[in-house]
Amino acid sequence: xxxxxxxxxxxxxxxxxxxxxxxxxxxxxxxxxxxxxxxxxxxxxxxxxxxxxxxxxxxxxxxxxxxxxxxxxx
Length: 74
Hints:
Layout: H1 5-19, H2 34-43, H3 63-73
């Protein structure tokens, strides 16, 4: 990924929010770098302090599916 002003900004904000234990939700149109920012930010977290679970979403994913993934994977 080639960093842009926006992705660097979002990366910094996301890292800062996580360090301060604030929830983060990335939203925006297709192609704005949400996935890249999330993957880069999560990849830099200390694995001793954080456990990362990646869930690919679609229109068919319900809250029940997400809860089951969390329960059975963790």
